Amino acid sequence: MSGHSKWATTKYRKGAQDSARAKVFAKIIRQVEVAAREGGSDMSANAGLRTMYAKARDSSVPIDTIERAIKRGSGELEGVRYESISYEGYAPDGVAVIVECLSDNRNRTGAEIRNIFSKSGGSMAEPGAVSWQFERKGVLAVPRTFEEDRVLEVAMEAGAEDLADEGEHWLVTCSPTDLMAVRSALEDAELSPGSSELSMVPTTTVEVSDESEAKRVLRLIDALDDHDDVQNVYANFDIAESVMAAYGE
Known about the structure:
By secondary structure, the protein is α+β, with helices and mostly antiparallel strands. It has three domains: 2-74, Arc Repressor Mutant, subunit A (Orthogonal Bundle); 83-132 and 205-248, YebC, transcriptional regulation domain (Alpha-Beta Plaits, 2-Layer Sandwich); 133-202, 2-Layer Sandwich (Alpha-Beta Plaits). It has helices spanning 2-17, 21-39, 47-58, 63-74, 106-119, 148-157, 179-188, 211-225, 241-248; strands at residues 83-91, 95-103, 123-125, 134-143, 160-165, 169-174, 195-202, 206-207, 230-235, 237-238. α2 (21-39) runs antiparallel to α3 (47-58), α2 (21-39) crosses α4 (63-74) and α6 (148-157) crosses α7. It is globular.
């Protein structure tokens, strides 16, 4: 899962340092609206909304902003209806990429995503072409200040499957259905995660050893991630930490 975890690390740091917080908020709010529309506004009965509410709070989205998004999604307030769309493709060096979007115009979004792939040296693929190389998982980033053994013990007892050292934090993975239980257990043990979300974790990875090729891959991922309709980008690359660090500077 190195490709996923390294990119997750990059996104985690970027999110903490990103000055364009309004854009980050807008993407998360769309996810909250869709979760409320699909499962209702009652968080006790809507696991997807609970997950998105936690993600929004992790990103410091104001509570009143989240509540308005829930009301728009449930129909209590007027709002735009967004459609969930996934695209699959390849970055340079055959790296598999999944792009998850929320859009109010499928044709426009599809054309723009295809253009990003093309301009960045990648290519779009048919549905199912790369998704078989990923598994849906719950992913939690726990600050490295907490002791590994304690985090591992609490997380595993709550249903976690794995814990990885990702530099500034421990990356805990679990089944999607166990995400909130693992998060709650960590919080109860005063080991609160910095973030928790549902993610697509690669089952196989592609090693990108050439530095110039690695930068091409990362530029494509960044370009996709910066698109307003794109909510998540997943890729199965394996790039050296030194290259990742240099790219992020």
